[in-house]
Amino acid sequence: MSFTSVGKLAPLPSGQAQNVRGKVVLNSYSRTRQASGSKSSAFNSGAISLGVHGKRKTTSQKCAGVSASLETGTKAGSPLDIIKNDLTFLKTRLDSDNRESAEVQKLQEKLAVLKEELDLAHEEVHDSENKVKKTLSELNQLEQVIGGLESVGTADVKTPSAAPSKASSGQKRGKGLHSSLEMEPGLKTFWYPVDFTSALEADILKPVELLGETWVLFRDESGTACCIRDECAHRACPLSLGTNVNGKIECPYHGWQYRGDGVCDAMPSTAQCKGVQVTALECREEDGLIYVWPSLDKKPDVGVPSELLAPPGDKFIIHSEISLEVPVEHGLLVENLLDLAHAPFTHTSTFARGWPVPDAVKFQLLTALGGNWEPYPIDMTFLPPVMTLSTIGLNQPGNIVRNVRAQDCEKHLHQLHVCIPSRKGHTRLLYRMSLDFLPWIRHLPGIKKVWRAMADQVLGEDLRLVLGQQERLLQGGDTWMNPVAYDKLAVRYRRWRNSLGDKDSQDQRLEVVSMSAGEMLKSDE
Ligand code: FES
Ligand SMILES: [Fe+2]
Coiled-coil annotation: which residues (predicted)? Predict the structure, then answer.
């Protein structure tokens, strides 16, 4: 049944309906509003009696109710009003159903779009996975190529990793070489230059630390250099804080006096104690250096190496003598001094300014042709236990000549470095510089300060590097992971040094070898 409002029909009394060709036509003038009231009032009319009590009516039930109302013509409220109300409810309900259906459709469309996007994302992830796999495969191939190149190279240097204590994860090439801050007992049976003659004036006391023990140098009544324990036998006061009284050290605490052989022969304000003494070391003085022998168990079986330490020939004059405290293990410093290859990289603002980096290819070529190539005219020597020597050939002060050996040069600069192992991780460096030309410059006012400033600057350039090495050693690093050809003199030192810690190694002497820069840098070892 459908309902149509037809305005052309004659007006009917309010609340009546007219059947027009099988259709019920509602009177457009009926006062439905007066009778309709609320939706619930419509269901409380006579039509409600046909409904299902206590439950919401279904659409068919509501339609049945409408028909019944029409047929019975119930007076309780206008049937037309009731019908109109029911129709209004039905329309609302249908509209609501339609809206819900439209929303469901929209959601379905959205779901379809999301599904498409998800499929697309899956494809992209799949593509990325393939790309990562391909890149990893290429990296693998690259590693193999690099590995091949390294195996034919001359300097097979491993790249340090980020973790300092495991810096070189590759195979160790420096087999048998190891550095540490420990001072081997075998270091004791050598003569050590501990100061310059010029530094030990008649009335002064010079404290000296050697291999972790404290000593004091002084001159006795005859002017002979002596070395005794820097610790009073009474209350352990450092004797170096005292004074030199007629060639004896007087303790500043209670005035006990000690001779050069360590015997205490004066004890003011008390009865003399017999047999009190402190340890004294064998002490020698030659060619401007004061030597001591630190071993108490073994007496010296060799003389002091003064001739070996002196500059060659009789033309050399000492221009500078300097002592410096360096907070670095002495072996690292010795190795640094025996390392010539670092100069054009490290000392670019001092003595090696403008030095070219030696060409390994040229070395190999000239060696193959039976020739020799000397990048710098420098000879270097290590002398056990802690001395290095270098002789530099010069044309003019500060200018280095090339492709000649030091001995072929007219002028020379000679350097002695003594790296005294004072205590663990600390060195006292003695530096002596001699020239065989310009003898008069040593008289120039302020020249000593100039040499000192220069030495400080050169040491400063090295110090940050060796300090860094020491730090790495303390973190478990290895300074001898990948030695190469130009490390050969330092390797020689380190082998000897390691042998001192080897109980089975009887011979701790080392043949003294001098090397030219060309011999040191060529890759034949
Ligand atoms: S501590 Fe040296 S005399 Fe007393
Ligand atoms: Fe250096």
Answer: 97-145
Q: Inter-axis angle of helices 488-500 and 330-337, to 10 degrees? A: 150
One domain for residues 370 and 505 = yes
Is 172 a pocket residue for ligand 1 (Cβ < 6 Å)?
no
Domain boundary among 288, 309, 330: 309
pLDDT exceeds cutoff 90 at 320: yes
The answer to whether the complex's ipTM is over 0.90 is yes
Distance 106 CA to ligand 2 centre (A): 80
Ligand 2 geometric centre to CA of 186 (Å): 27
- Residue 235 predicted with pLDDT over 50: yes
331 and 299 inside one domain: no
Residues 336 and 452 occupy one common structural domain: yes
Q: Cα(234) to centroid of ligand 1, in Å?
A: 5
CATH number at residue 229: 2.102.10.10
Q: What's the CA-to-centroid distance between 201 and ligand 1, angstroms? A: 24
The reply to whether 359 and 470 lie within a common domain is yes
Query: What pLDDT is attached to residue 243?
Result: 98
Do 228 and 356 belong together in one domain?
no
Please report the pLDDT score of residue 363 as a whole number: 54
Quick one: CA dihedral 477, 481, 485, 491, positive or negative? positive
pLDDT greater than 70 at residue 142: no
| Cβ of residue 251 lying under 6 Å from some atom of ligand 1 | yes
Q: Exposed, middle or buried: residue 222 (CB in 10 Å: 0-12, 13-18, 19+)?
A: exposed
Q: What is the layout of strands, in order, in the sheet containing 257-258? A: 243-245, 248-250, 257-258, 264-266
Helix H or strand E segment including 23: strand 23-26
Same domain? For 285 and 363 the reply is: no
**What pLDDT sits at residue 360?**
61
Write out the two tokens for 261: 């052989």
Q: Which of 253, 258, 270, 272 to mutate to test the pocket of ligand 1 (most atoms within 8 A of CB)?
A: 253
CA-nearest residue, atom 3 of ligand 1: 254
Decide if pLDDT at 205 tops 50. yes
Closest C-alpha to 318, from 201, 406, 435: 435
Domain count, the chain: 2
232 C-beta closer than 6 A to ligand 1: yes
Q: Which domain holds residue 224?
A: 184-309
**174 inside domain:** no
